[in-house]
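Morning - 5-amino-5-deoxy-1-O-phosphono-D-mannitol inputs below, output right after.
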Amino acid sequence: EKGGYDHFMLKEIYEQPRAYRDTMRGRVSEDGRSVVLPELSITAEQLRAVSRVHIVACGTAMHAGMVGKTVIERLARIPVEVDVASEYRYRSPIITKDTLVIVVSQSGETADTLAALREAKRCGARVLAITNVVGSSVAREADDVIITLAGPEIAVASTKAYSTMLVAFFLLGLYMAQTLGTQEEAEIAHILAAMDALPEQVERILAQADTVKGIAESIAKSSSLFFIGRGIDYAVALEGSLKLKEISYIHSEAYAAGELKHGTLALIEDGVPVIALLTQEDLFEKTVSNIKEVKARGAEVLGLVNEGHEAESAKSVDRQFAIPRTLPLLTPALSVIPLQLLSYYASLALGHDVDKPRNLAKSVTVE
Ligand code: M6R
């Protein structure tokens, strides 16, 4: 059942190229120039009336939602807020009839996410669900559903569900943009072509799993480490940090790179590993200055960079791992892969139960 892999998590990491293809299949027009989402019942008129979007989810699904916020804001120019589902109801969110609430849940059964969905509907908002499970509670109760075609995810640590949630957000962001007319048709076609290349690019990263394994084995000796990044790199840093904590039990924190000097820098001492995500080239110099701050305090920096940018980043990091080049907005679909592998191999090196980490359940059905 593990298809020859030692663990479900590893199998599911390797299924991601297939999962990307399946999640895109049938959702792009034949000429490759537009997104088709026949499953949506929301009309163009209703979509044009949406004045704000709330994305509500837990854990890894919430991290996918943070990327979704950037995608929707950049492509469709609608303001988006992201909330942790367990907090949403209690902050008296301003939910009006022109609010679109997007709930994201692999299982479709997470209690807090379901409660948020019900609250949103009670307030008269339309709810769109992104979920991996057809017929789940979330799928049944939402007005619209985009199913991710990751296939069953068994490992507690979510991998292929996260990455297909990203694909769902890319498709939805493009769909909103084409409906609202906020992007040129050529730009939409350009992004779709870049998405088409993602599965093969993921395969190229997976082919370097041994390199990541080596890095993981050295990191596994640390008692604490940090992930830093700016913009969507920060969203991916949060996901990388959660994954590592969840299965390797190594303490880690993810920080928006520019926030370090507002307190956290005090924790950086000799030999502390810092994983710096540097995929957003317009923010590169800014993040490099934050790398200098941690290096001055003795940190060992691993840079996650774009191919072709290695010579530039070699000047500031100790080690680096390069991911294939894609559009800035799509990088999370690639940068998360080495981070998943990193946590897998760190957990393995420490002898933990990768698929069933302590204290955690696959589906959290209590609030
Ligand atoms: O099924 P859901 O997507 O609603 O689950 C949400 C979280 O419980 C889940 O993503 C959790 O954070 C993962 N175990 C992280 O790997």
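Note: Residues 58-61, 105-107, 110, 113, 156-158, 242, 246, 363-364 surround 5-amino-5-deoxy-1-O-phosphono-D-mannitol (CB under 6 Å).

O.
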